[in-house]
UniProtKB/TrEMBL annotation:
Glycosyl hydrolase family 67 C-terminal domain boundaries: 467-694
UniProt xrefs under PANTHER family: ALPHA-GLUCURONIDASE A (PTHR39207)
Organism from which the protein derives: Sphaerisporangium dianthi
Domain of life: Bacteria
Keyword Hydrolase set for record: yes
Pfam family, one: Glyco_hydro_67C
Keywords of this entry: Hydrolase
Protein's UniProt name: Alpha-glucuronidase
Stretches assigned to the Glycosyl hydrolase family 67 catalytic domain: 137-466
UniProt entry tagged with the keyword Plastid: no
Length: 697
């Protein structure tokens, strides 16, 4: 480990201090040593020679800290030579790493880069100090890699301490007050930085009355959190109430076009920056599920977002404005309203109207974080708007951290999807700001150089394992890694996570553990999909808490989430020809694919089409037989995963093993419940027996 090595840390700044302290802490544990070079103090130090602090095995240096040890100068020269004179920047958060002459060298231009470089060395493990390594340049694909906490300050009668939280209480708040465990907040910052996350919103997007006050008289509570996260390069953001001028300021109106409202936001924001100079910005859920918004004043969401953006702009802050706007009081009898259409219907017409520091935050699918959805058509509809994609790391609809469901493969599909067709840019490039390329305007006189990035709804709480289910940590890790490097193979990310997590605690040979965890986790999202929702049908869950099956639970409700199963068939007709027209919200390539019964991918068939149970899939199976087969298979896979975990007793700490074993018991019970309810439901509706004669209750 790093801690047994001799290290030199060179440079100044808060995050360089963090790097130094990290290395020093590791050395105190493992017997190595670290030297902090004073400005200019590394001058002339030999690569590996006899001098007070050396020889060094590891050099972590800001290039500007200048004259560097000879080996670091050589690495820098290599890097510059390779890049050519015109572009030799390492970048704000980037780092260069190489190993030569027995020294591992990490160089950065900014302190954040050095911190990420350090965590990269940790991730590499012993090989970081093995054979020589060529110069590698690492930079995040996305500048914004943010986690949103749906944490309430007060316990809320409906959503509790953490809305959709499955990992205990909030790490920030408890019973109306700050939780007070600041060292834990700092450890959280450390954990997130190690995953690559650099922004956190500390309260629920459903901003209730207590939480609204975080913006004004309780700003000190937010500042205290920001102070713990800052040393790890994490900016603090706040979810705010759109009606704050009324709720907090006593204004008679919240109309974004009213001068008094604009003034209120400007002044409130100025005070925020006086208290937290590096404050990240606001997150807003407006006109959504009962939250206030600009519609009440006949104003658009551009008007709403821009007034906050205007207040934040002088300080470099951004507003994350959520596109999750739909009618949750729909009449289920009304077949003309389609919730899937809502975000595009509301936002696509506003293209070009948002200020440059507005980031439109779009859920990855058009509905709501189901186990399978197509990619939201909004992502292709707003080329001059900064877009962020929102993923749900917390497993609201994917097993609530009682089921193993490694989500990286799903996210990877989303990020790799090309909304304009095979020749167009992938989602990852669009939200990184790298595509569709230079089209972004210079409205407001600023030319932004970045996209909206990736946002995840956090799955972390005050649970001892952070995430309730210990294996759900892999989702947190994968979220950060994919935001940094979206093209990374999910299995490779899992491999990193296994090493980082289990190296310190596993007993004996780690290879069997690694193999078992891959077998358990690699395909666990598809397994979950198999025993829950077939072919793109969603929301067959228990209303309100959303755990476990209830095929008709949402069928006759106001939420706009229906499957329309009858005796003949199932699915939602979202075609242009005969349905809601949702398929027409995509650019031509995908619009044509989804419109066509033949070309529509199996896994989304029932999202786009209502088909008879005997409809034949590309696989050759019928829809009804597919439902039976996948539900039986899904349960078998859970049983297999459970027995693989059983086999790991003795390889991992006993308490960890016991926790996961209990959770597997619940997962298996629940998966059987899903299988039997879904199969029985469709058997009773269709009357078609299972071709393989298995028992359907
Ligand atoms: O998925 C739904 C959840 C709500 C959540 C909402 C949202 C924070 O059921 O609990 O509210 O999405 O994303 O705003």
């Amino acid at each position: 480990p790093i801690g047994s090595r001799r290290a030199l840390v060179s440079g100044e700044g808060l995050l360089v201090d963090t790097v130094h302290d990290e290395v020093a802490r590791a050395c105190a544990r493992y017997g190595g040593g670290v030297r902090r070079a004073a400005p200019g103090g590394a001058r002339g130090l030999p690569a590996r020679g006899d001098h007070a602090g050396g020889p060094f095995d590891l050099v972590l240096a800001l290039r500007a800290a200048g004259p560097l040890p000879a080996v670091a100068e050589q690495v820098d020269a290599r890097f510059r030579g390779r890049r050519g004179r015109a572009d030799d920047a390492i970048g704000d958060e980037g780092f260069v790493i190489a190993r030569r002459d027995g020294v591992t060298v990490v160089l950065a231009d900014e302190p954040a880069g050095l911190l990420y470089g350090l965590f990269h060395v940790v991730r590499l493990g012993e090989p970081a100090f093995g054979a020589a390594r060529p110069v590698e340049h690492h930079r995040p694909a996305m500048r914004r890699r943010m986690l949103d906490h749906w944490d309430n300050v007060d316990v809320h009668p409906k959503s509790g301490q953490v809305e959709r939280g499955y990992a205990g209480g909030s790490i920030f708040w408890r019973d109306g007050a700050p939780r007070g465990d600041l060292p834990r907040v700092r450890s959280y910052g450390r954990l997130l930085a190690a995953c690559g996350v650099n922004a956190v919103a500390v309260n629920n997007v459903n901003v209730h009355v207590t939480e609204a006050h975080l913006l004004t008289d309780r700003l000190g509570d937010v500042a205290a959190i920001a102070a713990e996260l800052r040393p790890y390069g994490i900016r603090t953001h706040l979810a705010v109430d759109f009606a704050a001028p009324i709720v907090l300021g006593g204004s008679p109106t919240g109309d974004p076009c009213d001068a008094r409202v604009r003034k209120w936001w400007a002044e409130a924001t100025e005070r925020v920056y006086e208290t937290i100079p590096d404050f990240g910005g606001y997150v807003v859920k407006a006109d959504s599920e009962g939250r206030p918004g600009p519609f009440a004043y006949g104003r658009s969401h551009a008007d709403g977002a821009n007034v906050l953006a205007e207040a934040l702009a002088p300080f470099g802050g951004v507003v994350h404005w959520r596109a999750f706007v739909y009618d949750h009081r729909q009449d289920w009898r009304d077949r003309s309203t389609d919730r899937a259409r809502a975000a595009h219907d509301h936002f696509a017409p506003l293209e070009g109207l948002f200020r440059d520091n507005v980031i439109l935050q779009v859920k990855h699918g058009p509905i709501d974080f189901q186990a399978r959805e197509p990619v939201s058509p909004v992502i292709a509809a707003m080329p001059s708007t900064r877009l962020a994609v929102e993923l749900q790391v917390t497993q609201e609809y994917t097993g609530q951290q009682r089921h193993v469901c490694y989500l990286a493969p799903m996210w990877s599909e989303v990020l790799g999807f090309r909304p304009f067709g095979p020749a167009g840019p992938a989602v990852a490039r669009i939200v990184a700001g790298a595509a569709p390329g230079g089209e972004r305007g210079t409205r407001g006189g600023r030319a932004p150089d970045e996209g909206g990035g990736l946002v995840g709804v956090s799955n972390v709480g005050d649970d001892a394992y952070w995430t309730g289910h210990p294996l759900a940590q892999a989702n947190l890790y994968a979220f950060g890694r994919l935001a940094w490097a979206p093209w990374t193979d999910p299995a490779a990310i899992l491999d990193e996570w296994i090493d980082l997590t289990f190296a310190p605690v596993a007993h004996g040979d780690r290879e069997p553990l690694r193999r078992a965890l891959h077998a358990i986790m690699d395909d666990s999202w598809r397994t979950y999909e198999r025993y829950t929702a077939p072919l793109g049908v969603g929301f067959m869950v228990r209303p309100e808490h959303h755990y476990g099956p209830d095929v008709d639970g949402y069928e006759y409700t106001s939420w706009g989430t229906y499957h329309f199963a009858d005796r003949d068939g199932v699915g939602v007709d979202r075609t242009r020809a005969t349905g809601t027209g949702f398929a027409g919200q995509y650019p031509p390539h995908w619009s044509a694919v989804y419109e066509s019964l033949d070309r529509c991918p199996n896994e989304l068939l029932l999202f786009f089409h209502h088909v008879p149970y005997e409809h034949v899939l590309h696989s050759g199976s019928t829809v009804i037989q597919h439902i039976y087969d996948t539900h039986f298979a899904g349960v078998e896979q859970v049983a297999e995963a459970r027995s693989l975990w059983e086999g790991l007793a003795g390889s991992v700490p006993a308490a960890l093993h016991a926790r996961v074993r209990e959770l597997f018991d619940e997962q298996l019970r629940c998966a059987k419940e899903w299988r039997d309810q879904v199969n029985a439901y469709f058997f009773r509706k269709s009357g078609v027996p299972d071709a393989r004669g298995r028992r359907i209750p």
